[in-house]
Specification:
By secondary structure, the protein is an alpha+beta fold. The protein has 2 domains: 3-159, PAS domain (Beta-Lactamase, 2-Layer Sandwich), CATH 3.30.450; 163-377, Heat Shock Protein 90, CATH 3.30.565. It has 13 helices and 12 strands. The protein has helices at 3-9, 21-32, 35-42, 62-67, 81-84, 107-116, 161-190, 199-227, 240-250, 252-258, 277-293, 324-329, 345-356; strands at 47-51, 57-60, 121-129, 134-147, 150-159, 235-239, 261-265, 272-276, 300-308, 311-318, 360-366, 369-377. The strands form 3 sheets. Strands 2-1-5-4-3 form a 5-stranded antiparallel beta sheet, with helices on both faces. Strand 4 and strand 5 form a beta hairpin. The radius of gyration is 25 Å and the shape is elongated. It starts with a helix and ends in a 5-residue tail after the last strand.
């Protein structure tokens, strides 16, 4: 057995082995020739596929081929679910869909694992679907299926992306507004106890936080408009370093209460960009809040910015290191370490950065801590 074949069989989750092409073709032809099978599947509104025991497609209904804008089944048969929807993880390992570390947290992969064991499952999954041009939220139902004395798997998918997007935007709004309101509350609660000569700085901090609160409410109005395809971004020229200092000031009271220090670093000369200041402030605020929540008393969280070719980068670093479970799901809309309706910060960071601010966001976690890096164009084109 050569090294290439050995690599193709290696897996970090589900079996990597695939059926020979001629076997897959025979399975497909058998099902495609059965009018009861094809008629039943094509009558389904869900995106339905029949898979062999190696999780390869042997038949797909018309709803699925229409959804993928395919003329027939030629580009479907033999593929796995991640291949169909263009999941970015499907190409990470030679074994393909279902064999990566990330697949352990995939709702579709886990539902198929249940069906392989003889059970039924209903899960939700979010697929980073490069081929379709967007991320997909799917509800997947799986079960074992016996056709013509052969064992298969039936998987039916429902696109719930719009539903999840609306839910997420509502949660993001309350998530951010509560954070900012809590910042205002924290400042006001401290004011009776501070020396008289420090009151002006506290009043200024409260004013900045209340301005942010109003901005967030207006921004949520814009996000709802975006869902209807009516969003007009509010572009202006502003300093990125000044924005970071303003965000740090908003969270200074919350950081002080946790015993965590916020440090803002940047070049001597201000970095000016043209973008939506409110949305970028929300991104920076969520990055900072997540970093603060991850740290213990005595830690230092650093915010910084720098110029790069064609734009600018902002980074937020905290000394803590992510666990494997958090690292694998950090940008997932449905993932939270803090309970239902919370933990939307990292998802909102990617949503706002990718969809509206035309940037990109990534993270790295190692022995020195965790760093989130967001890159934005010098001038946002809309």
């Amino acid at each position: 057995m050569d090294q290439e074949h050995i690599a193709a069989l290696e897996t970090q989750y589900l079996p990597a082995e695939k059926a020979p092409p001629e076997e897959v073709t025979a399975q497909h032809e058998l099902l495609a020739a059965d009018p009861v099978v094809t008629g039943t599947l094509d009558a389904m509104l869900s995106l339905a596929v029949v898979l062999n025991k190696q999780r390869q497609v042997v038949y797909a209904n018309k709803a699925l081929t229409d959804f993928l804008r395919l003329e027939g089944l030629g580009d479907v048969v033999g593929k796995r679910v991640g291949d169909l929807f263009g999941c970015r993880h499907a190409c990470e390992r030679p074994g393909g869909c279902g064999t990566t570390e990330s697949c352990r947290k995939c709702g579709a992969a886990n539902a198929l694992a249940s069906a392989l064991s003889g059970g039924k499952a209903v899960n939700e999954c979010r697929i980073s679907a490069a081929e379709i041009g967007d991320d997909l939220d799917l509800r997947v139902r799986t079960r074992p299926l016996v056709l013509r004395d052969r064992e298969y798997l039936l998987a039916a998918f429902q696109d719930i992306s719009a539903e999840k997007r609306r839910e997420a935007l509502e949660k993001i709004f309350f998530h951010d507004v509560v954070n900012t309101a809590a910042g205002v509350q924290g400042i006001l609660q401290l004011m009776p106890e501070v020396p008289h000569h420090q009151l002006p700085s506290y009043i200024s901090a409260a004013a900045r936080a209340s301005d942010t609160l109003v901005d967030q409410i207006l921004s949520q109005r814009d996000l709802y408009a975006a869902e209807r395809g009516e969003l007009t971004l509010n572009l202006s020229r502003f300093g990125l370093l000044a924005l970071l200092k303003n965000v740090a000031g908003t969270f200074s009271a919350a950081a002080g209460a946790r015993g965590v220090e916020i440090e803002v670093r940047g070049p001597a000369e201000e970095i000016h960009i043209i973008s939506d200041r409110t949305l970028l402030s929300r991104v920076a605020g969520n990055l900072l809040k997540n970093a603060l929540e991850a740290e213990q008393r005595g830690a230092v969280v650093t915010m910084s910015c720098r110029r790069v070719a064609g734009g600018a980068v902002l980074e937020v670093h905290n000394p803590g290191r992510m666990s494997e479970s958090v690292r694998l799901q950090v940008f997932q809309r449905s993932f939270s370490t803090k309970g239902a309706g919370r933990g939307l910060g990292t998802y909102s960071i990617r949503l706002l950065t990718d969809k509206y601010l035309k940037g990109s966001v990534s993270f790295a976690t190692d022995g020195s801590g965790t760093t989130f890096t967001a890159r934005y164009p010098a001038k946002l084109e809309i």
